[in-house]
Hints:
This protein has 123 residues and is an all-beta fold. The chain has no helices and eleven strands. It has strands at 4-6, 9-12, 17-22, 33-38, 45-50, 57-59, 67-72, 77-82, 91-98, 110-113, 117-122. The strands form two sheets. Strands 2, 4, 5, 6, 9, 10 and 11 form a seven-stranded mixed beta sheet that branches. Strand 5 and strand 6 form a beta hairpin.
Amino acid sequence: VQLQASGGGLVQAGGSLRLSCTDPKRTSSNNGVGWFRQVSGTDREFVASISWNGGSTVLADSVKGRFAISRDRARNTVYLQMNSLNTEDTAVYFCAAGRGSSTSQNSDYYRYWGQGTLVTVSS
Length: 123
């Protein structure tokens, strides 16, 4: 499984970004997918997760009401829509495919990780 995360960049506080996680070889279409973020020197933090068919989603408390996760199975892409960004959202964001079809907040559940995409929120 090869996941590709994209869509990061520099945005002002209060702005929005949409991250994409694609699987060109379509090997994770039946897997749950998660987004995590990491600031240098700290542990990876769970952000959001979605089940294989998009029927179940989980968001971290820190992003509820601001972020949304969705997936387009036809495009084999999972999106992370991020609104009302603040400086605490600055991090490298990673997507990962789970070992099964459900959601999970546990990073150990995820077997395949894409490269990260950097999100920088300026004040």
